[in-house]
Amino acid sequence: MSAPARAASYAAVFRLPHARRTFGAALFGRLGYGVVSLSLVLSLTSATGSLSRGGLLATLFATVSVLLGPARAALVDRWGARRGLTTLALPFATTLFVLAAAVREPGTPLWAFAGLSGAAGALCPPLGPTMRALWDALTPDEALLQRAFSVDTVAEELIFLSGPLLVVAVHPVNGLVLSGALIGCGTLAMVTSPAARLLPPRHTSTASAAERLRLFGEKGGGVRRAAYAAAGIGCCLGCVELFVIAFADRHHHPSAVGWILAAQSAGSALGGLLYGRISWRLPAAARLPGLLLVLAALVSVTAAAPVLTVFGLCVAAAGTLTAPILSTAYLAAAGSAPDGATTRATTWVNSAVNAGSSAGGAVAALLVAGVPLALCFLLAAVPPVLAAVAISRARRTKGGAEGPVLAEEGGGV
Questions:
Q1: What is the residue-averaged pLDDT of the chain?
Q2: N or C of the chain: less Cβ packing under 10 Å?
């Protein structure tokens, strides 16, 4: 699949005008998303007295966020990064503050938790998609854009390394407050960067219904395959997160959850950095089935872990595939998108990850109470296998037209 190549440097990405300031602000805000998921599950589980209810409420937050993601992206496109992001971020932070107060208040009804969780999901500012749009505007060529996506993906994994540790350090309810503060302040810092001017207000929609459909048509086959991969890994990871909580709880070490999930993210960051240094002969879309099958195998092995330490190592090993799969999916989507549709194509990948994660979380919440955990982890390995099969079938139907061979870029920068 690959040929040896000189290791590429990512330094040129950070030499782009205003890249360090804008990316740093975006990461500061996105750290809030690394905190909010686990904070929601643990705080709402404590408030409702049920892991299933807590998991379902957190899944409600994620599901509403996914369903309204295109509308929020359209708002940012129409109003520009500065006005669009600010309009979403400040109400989002306020909603999380109110939810934290409701969790602390004894006797808060379930419908109030559901309403606040749904409202927070509806208001999530799209910091990741907006940063990818800014990368697209900042980078002068495709090779540098590909490296920017790799940096972005690995950095996002480092966020999910830090996020669970912060939840353990500050307590889940305080984690809700911290998440709102991080996202609110990070958004304000991001929109005051000069680079935010590269996404100005627009007076017309950026894509008609026909243009959106073309992303999944003949020219956009790589987008469809990338979305399959993203949905498969998202569903798997959505299951694994809740199963990790259940495993730690049943082994009487609930505080280990943060460390295990952090180890998973650390594995992903390491895997992404190593994977990004390889020069591949196969195009991105063609690499996805193999990566997904390796992920499924590693998640399946986790089912046999006898003790917490071995379990954590297995979860970390499975995590080494996360960043490689996601960065490859972004590259596949960008490389085969119709002209002028790169940002929308990568947004579909992001939406597919979130949709898969929401579906996986919902299924996991239903399974965790009545199905043995070993079987739960075997079931979590099914979505990547199904995604690999779907991608392989789509490639055969396509007849092998995979778009540009991304491995033949040349040396480092």
A1: 82
A2: N
